[in-house]
Amino acid sequence: MRKYQPYIMLLLLLLLPLFGLSTYMMHILILVIMWSVIGMAWNLLGGYCGQVSFGHAAFFGVGAYTAGILYFKTGISAWWGLPLSVVIVAAEALIIGFICLRLRGPFFALATLAMGEVLRVTAENLRGFTQGALGILIKERTWVEKTWYYYIIVLIAVGAFVLVKKIIESKLGYYFVAIREDQDAAESLGINTTLYKTIALTISAVLTGIAGAFYTNYMGYIDPEIVFALHDISIITIMVVMVGGVATYWGPVVGAVIMVLLAELIRSLPRIGTAHQTLFGILLILIIIFLPNGIVGDYPKIKRILGFRRRVGTTS
Amino acid sequence: MAPLLEIRGVSKFFGGLAAVVDVSFRIDRGEIVGLIGPNGAGKTTLFNVINGFYRPSKGEILFKGKRISGLKPHQICRLGIARTFQVVKPLQRMTVLDNVIASAFLRSSSKREAVEKAEEILRFTGLYEDKDMLSRGLPLGKRKRLEIARALATDPELLLLDESFAGLNPTEQNESIEIIKKIKERGITILIIEHHMKVIMSISDRVVVLNYGEKIAEGSPDEVGRNPLVIEAYLGEAISA
After folding, report:
1. How far apart are CA A59 and CA A227, in angstroms?
2. Domain at B5-88+155-240: CATH code
3. Is A166 an 8 Å CB contact of chain B?
4. Domain ranges of chain B
5. Of B124, B160, B166, nearest to B143 (Cα)?
6. I want to staple A224 with a disulfide (CB 3.0 to 4.6 A). Which of A123, A164, A178, A185 is the partner?
7. Low-confidence ranges of chain A (pLDDT < 50)
């Protein structure tokens, strides 16, 4: 049964639009799946390889701007930004990796955080190239309906999921986890830690960049404050994975569902809605204290607690 | 024929502190060489220099006649030198089997090959029963043996063992002595740091003694045991203690 789980999931995903969901529901679904992709990407680097990045907006934003600038400067469909972003973001990841991957632990995290901010400020000020804070508007939307956007992001997500799973089960996966657990031990076991960290970063960045390029096409408007956002992209990415479950296959998906729904819910609340960043911060603290392995990682624990409660309920 | 490992006038300074001073010795194929000395004598530092964690401040290290000082640890491991750590460094959140698979990949072309090799090595080191345990759950004795298993999985020609006996009970010590003898039968050369005199004297073909970073003696266990300098620096202390 467990073996068929992914296929059933896939079938459900493919059939969902046929149920005639409202445009708003489709929008939420698309966001959830897009965040799953970003979460999976981050999880590969942060969860499995242990290199915690606080700057994934750097890759999301460059992916988004690759599509945006391509359309704006040449008039070619922004969809070509998806394949092009792979090349551009891979090159970006190699440069950022060269600078940041020589640092370990919290120093790496801080360096990536700085990278994201550097790129945001750059995008704001290179007005001739990026339109600065004006942003880029995609005037011709490909589809009015959401259905095709949905199928495209499902395709990307399935591809990302399979890719991450294959990588983790291969030699690369063993090396990533070995580096996470002890970099010195890994190095002395013949693992070229610099090389494999760079590989993890590049794959992670490229997947994030594709999600960014998709975002440009889907939303039809980008500006640096949105796609290079420290909080709304970089931090939320980490939260998606932490809430769902670090270094688990389904963690980023579960995390994306919860974070997107929660964001919608909190923003719709009168008055407190404006404090959603604070509420997310509190949520993160609670997760770290009570579910350090996330919902998927601590699933047995959650089941135990819920099961216990139910039994108490029936006896009283 | 060139010796397997040749250490030529190696010194390592940390600022003004001389951890290893002008040490030279050689290791021939098939030998077990013991490296002994009081605490802080520079034994582990010397391992770190051989293994590539540190660059020697002076001197050079040749492996099979080729200079290896200056290479990165993973390159040196690929050439055929594997090591264990005094403070064990298991990959904690991986199972025992996965720990060994991770290092078996170095010389395996497929995952199946790596798994087979890892299982063979776990049987060899007597850890097969524990293969599905997370390595952080292992008792210290087995963690020390896991270090050896992981190093063996890289198919080394030279194995550097850093205090693989420290903290073991007598039964575990005997098991480890047997494993080391079996490793020698596989044709692997061993350089071992050890504090247990009985262990080192019984398994070593030759012993090198360091004190304050300098080599003060070298020879068969008997010769070294009778050397007055060694007795003063090391054995004397141990006996009077």
Report:
1. 9
2. 3.40.50.300
3. no
4. 5-88+155-240
5. B166
6. A123
7. 313-316
